[in-house]
């Protein structure tokens, strides 16, 4: 089940033929999308903020929370019955876990697995030294290329799928890249899953807003990958938020059960705004996160032992003055670093971070908050990174310009992750000997041989002189991002998709839509 | 010589009485400067990108560079003579160092020392787990509060000194915070040193642009601290750039000699734009930096054994397309992380990083590049950080708005450096027990007791709703930074300065100015 070279069902395998052409066309249009990069295999160390004593203390405290306080599994009789059978002490909807129960159950969860794309070249590893970036998730609004902030539409959704497809260091197509508010709420998952399959060949996420929508997502995946392949391989990662503090609700449990039964991955993510949903301290927040993840992740193993599951963490704080969420500050970074360590000790792949910010525009606030979060994300060793590009306003808006700026930063993180080249070529002693004191390296043989790949090249940073920048119209980075975004969308070419699969998907979508009245809330 | 509580000469000790009043006034004006923070004592680990093998390889290669290729000490007969006497092989202006010579000489250099301020409460440690932030250095232009980019003046210089004095997490007054181009080039050091002493009580840097200007800086310091105190304590840190590759020039050597003779600190800093002044690779650049620092730092010990000296690194790359310098990219971050490791192994305090960027305006480009650099700076364990706030355009312009944005980020770094509180209060088990599943922490006793200090509070980030932000005029962070900067400058109050010292300083400045004709180049 776990070989990255495994290929979807015979006769249905899709090559990404269109990809090369799209990349070339975008590249010709100037500063365009380069070739798609494989997922990141980190050659650099992880950064750690807790020592053994601190980790053991938090693990102990989480065990106390699980046993003494317990976690609620709300309005799901099946879940409560499963916990009873597993040996938990269930009182009402509150589950109290004997010490060690959750960890014992989690022994069947894989520490690494492959998340398959319909184009096998785009399949990614989740866990270990792998890092996978995915776009913004869940925004009801967009900030569009005309500078308007408005409700998102299906066209926006498709645009973000296209941009994620073209961004070299975006390794996944993501999930709800924005909420297509123009489509009825009970039907939009069909258009979303279809758009991911149609407009990209990178791995995508399933719908989690209702069990039947999760079932639809699985059914559509089966039309692409084949029944057996889906039942035996992960083709969808699915975001299961805890209702912190210490609650899993019916909706999320319903989706988690569907995905686990079909062997698909759950990302168990306490959604934490410290000070509101968790204590105002880092260690207290980590304790609660660990308890919640232990309960939620082990629940997936009750459903199907071996189902892939991630230790997720969404960490932010609230302003103690206004109650508003804040991002990119030190405390959530410490929480995420610590959670990453706890996840590694637990042997589960880890999700955190992204390019988070509270700003309403892609200004320096947005960038500082995003960069503080993203640098931490890389060094923490996050395996799966939602919201890696396009996130604005605490996630309320998906922003085209910020998507472009962020995806450039993802390229930098990908290069950073390669670490220091200590080969003879990296050591460059020939160059130092050739150049000598007082000369320069621009023309030396070593520079000539290496300059194409030596440095990460940003398509958006303006490094020219002030005078040149003035002549070119005193553009800010968001102006350049706007132009680059337009050129990418112009140059976009869809990856090939077997017409028979396309037809089957469209028929499924039509049939499911026909079976339901429109619902808008 | 090395006790942080040591105080400048009797009768000359200055208390920062004005400080509290200024802070209170700024605070009353809204979002103002808080109380000055002490220098950072890092409780978090350093991040490392090289293992033992890599470090040993680079050290070996640097030894080869020192012995085989050598370093030029240009137009300084005294320096060459000193190297001959020390056992080096001097051929023309090129010095070849027998293996181990530089490291042997550096055994007398302190691994930590105190950089004294005229207000002892503002004295800082340099080395070990200490991190000290200093403002932008050397910009001929400013980007002012009216949005104009123009040559800097003495008034700008004083303004940046005042802002650095008021910024809570700026631990030093810096040096050439901008070039006061309206003052003759041969006299402006007098106004600069005087301004640091008059308008701040944080530790400052001396002039390095000519040996006689270094002597003037020492003479003025003696008027404040007393002769003996200066000769036996570090009261000035001084920036000595190598002329990379592998050259120290007459000017820098002249200043280094003056400062070392008086026991003042030199920051030996290869100024590296990789690809031009060093190889295009990280390991090659590290090798050259290490060789240059070994030569330059050990030279200070030839002048006066025991003189404080720092391992400095200014790391950037050039665009291989345009030749322009680029900042905040992965390769210079790897260089700085590696250099920090080499410095720690050498037992020298380390300088790198800051808030570097190439952008012409304080936009998202400026912020991403600055944040990438600053996050690295903290985690690398840099001891002294020049350009920590205000740097724009690759250092060509000092920007008021960016200064304000950056100093906010410095506050975040200072908080981050405190790491995770694992005390009972940090663990917050009482809070988790009190709140329980499904409730919130806003009103619980633990939150009420801790919310004032729990989270870093940015005076500039807008975390409000989109609607509130619209009502407040759709301001970008640079608009808010502009307003905050104006309020700080309005609220500024100078720290107390003994009138006798002030008079002596003014008389010295007048006398020195009278002794020279004006020079403008």
TrEMBL record, chains A, B:
The record's listing under Gene3D superfamilies reads: Trimethylamine methyltransferase-like
Q: Which GO terms describe its molecular function?
A: methyltransferase activity
Q: What keywords were assigned to this record?
A: Methyltransferase, Transferase
Q: For bias kind Low complexity, which ranges apply?
A: 1-11
Q: What is its EC number?
A: 2.1.1.-
Instruction: Give me any GO biological process, just one.
Output: methanogenesis
Q: Which domain of life is it from?
A: Bacteria
Give positions of region: Disordered. Answer: 1-37
InterPro entries xref list: MttB-like_sf (IPR038601), MTTB_MeTrfase (IPR010426)
Q: Which Pfam families match?
A: MTTB
The record's family statement is: Belongs to the trimethylamine methyltransferase family.
UniProt-recorded name of the protein: Methyltransferase
């Amino acid at each position: 089940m776990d070989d990255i070279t495994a290929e979807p069902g015979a006769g249905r395998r899709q090559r990404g033929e269109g990809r090369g052409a799209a990349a070339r066309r975008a590249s010709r249009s100037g500063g365009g999308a380069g070739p798609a990069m494989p997922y990141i295999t980190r050659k650099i160390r992880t950064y750690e903020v807790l020592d053994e004593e601190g980790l053991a203390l938090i693990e102990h405290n989480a065990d106390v929370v699980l046993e003494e306080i317990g976690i609620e599994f709300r309005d799901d009789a099946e879940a409560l019955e499963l916990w009873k059978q597993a040996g938990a002490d269930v009182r009402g909807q509150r589950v109290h876990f004997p010490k060690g129960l959750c960890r014992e159950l989690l022994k069947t969860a894989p520490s690494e697995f492959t998340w398959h794309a319909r184009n096998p070249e785009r399949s990614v590893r989740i866990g270990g030294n792998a890092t996978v970036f995915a776009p913004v998730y869940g925004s009801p609004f967009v900030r569009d290329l005309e500078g308007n902030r408005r409700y998102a539409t299906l066209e926006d959704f498709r645009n973000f799928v296209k941009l994620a497809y073209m961004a070299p260091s975006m390794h996944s197509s993501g999930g709800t890249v924005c909420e297509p508010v123009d489509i009825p709420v009970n039907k939009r998952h069909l258009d979303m899953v279809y758009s991911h399959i149609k407009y990209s060949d990178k791995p995508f996420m399933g719908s989690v807003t209702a069990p039947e929508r999760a079932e639809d997502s699985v059914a559509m995946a089966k039309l692409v990958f084949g029944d057996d392949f889906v039942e035996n391989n992960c083709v969808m990662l699915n975001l299961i938020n805890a209702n912190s503090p210490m609650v899993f609700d019916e909706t999320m449990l319903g989706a988690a059960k569907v995905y686990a039964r079909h062997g698909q991955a759950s990302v168990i993510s306490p959604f934490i705004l410290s000070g509101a949903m968790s204590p105002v301290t880092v260690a207290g927040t980590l304790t609660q996160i660990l308890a919640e993840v232990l309960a939620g992740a082990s629940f997936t193993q009750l459903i199907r032992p071996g189902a892939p599951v991630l230790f997720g963490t969404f960490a932010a704080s609230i302003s103690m003055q206004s109650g508003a969420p804040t991002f990119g500050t030190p405390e959530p970074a410490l929480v995420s670093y610590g959670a990453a360590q706890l996840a590694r000790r637990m042997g589960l792949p880890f999700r955190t971070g992204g390019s988070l910010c509270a700003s309403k525009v892609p200004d320096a606030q947005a960038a500082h908050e995003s960069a503080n979060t993203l640098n931490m994300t890389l060094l923490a060793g996050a395996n799966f990174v939602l919201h890696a590009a396009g996130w604005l306003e605490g996630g309320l808006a998906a922003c085209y310009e910020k998507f472009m700026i962020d995806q450039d930063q993802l390229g930098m993180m990908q290069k950073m992750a390669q670490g220091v080249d200590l080969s003879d070529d990296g050591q460059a002693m020939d160059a130092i000997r050739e150049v000598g004191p007082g000369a320069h390296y621009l023309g030396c043989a070593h520079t000539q041989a290496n300059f194409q790949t030596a440095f990460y090249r940003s398509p958006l940073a303006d490094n020219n002189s002030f005078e040149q920048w003035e002549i070119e119209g005193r553009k800010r980075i968001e102006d350049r991002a706007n132009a680059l975004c337009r050129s990418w969308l112009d140059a976009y070419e869809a990856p090939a998709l077997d017409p028979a699969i396309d037809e089957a998907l469209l028929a499924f979508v039509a049939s499911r839509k026909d079976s339901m009245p429109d619902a808008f809330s």
